Amino acid sequence: MASVTKESKSNFVSEAIKEFMKFKSEESEKEKNKKPQKRRKLVTEIDDDTNDEDTQICGVFKQKVLNNMNQQLVSRKKINDNFKRNLTDISRSLEEDFSVLKNNTKELEEVTTASIKCLYQTTSAIKLSISNLKDLEQTFIKTCDDIEKEQSSQISQLDEDLDKEMKLVKEKLISAAKKNYLEMLQRSFHEAEASLQNNF
Question: Are 94 and 130 in contact (CB under 8 A)?
């Protein structure tokens, strides 16, 4: 079960990163289609703009992922609580039936040996069912507690993993922005140089 959970968490992180990169790519395309500014930005200004924008986007995206995981945890807890209540109700109902059967047994002790034997067998079967059901209830409660602890631990680990992944993405985006800006400067320099040569 733990391996399946880890694999699903890994797939979730991978899908989240793909979605984020797609979102960032769309934002970059929008930025490219904007009107050119009168003054070209310096590399340091591009770094600051990219860093602020990426920090904001990463924060929003990370919070969205964590909120989604927390909602799943809350929903799962509600389902488990409902199931625990149902188990408790069934156990209580069986205990009431068991009490009624005990009273009936006392009242029918003088009927026949066969009838009494049948009632004792039924009573024993229900008593065993109650014992088994209580054991199942305790096992289920313990399992639910373990799952909740594991989910909480996974959310914390996911938070750390997302921070690391977002840091790497930011570094790649900043590096790409610097590279694009340097290429643009080189083209501008070559164009200016060619223009000067043509003038002379």
Answer: yes
Mean pLDDT over 87-109 rounds to: 86
Q: What is the dihedral of CA 103, 105, 111, 112, to 10 degrees?
A: 180
Q: Shortest CA distance to 165 belongs to which of 26, 5, 3, 20?
A: 20
Report the alpha-carbon distance of residue 26 to residue 33 in Å, rounded: 11
191: in domain: no
Distance CA 5, CA 147 (A): 10
Q: Which of 58, 30, 57, 43 is nearest to 177 (CA)?
A: 43
- What the block records as the tokens of 95 is 């205990």
Q: Give a yes or no: residue 181 inside a domain.
A: no
What is the C-alpha end-to-end distance of the chain, expressed in Å? 76
64 has pLDDT over 90:
no
| Tens digits of residue pLDDT in 32-53 | 565 444 444 444 444 455 566 6
69: containing domain = 56-160
- Which residues lie below 8 Å from residue 94, measured CB to CB, with a gap of 6+? 126, 129, 130, 133
How many domains does one find in the chain?
Answer: 1
Let me know if 162 is exposed, middle or buried by CB neighbors in 10 A (0-12, 13-18, 19+): buried
Instruction: State phi, psi for 40 to the nearest 5 degrees.
Output: -75, 140
Instruction: Let me know if residue 40 belongs to a domain.
Output: no
Q: Is residue 28 part of a domain?
A: no
Per-residue CA distances from 21 to 15, 74, 87, 180 (Å): 10, 28, 46, 18
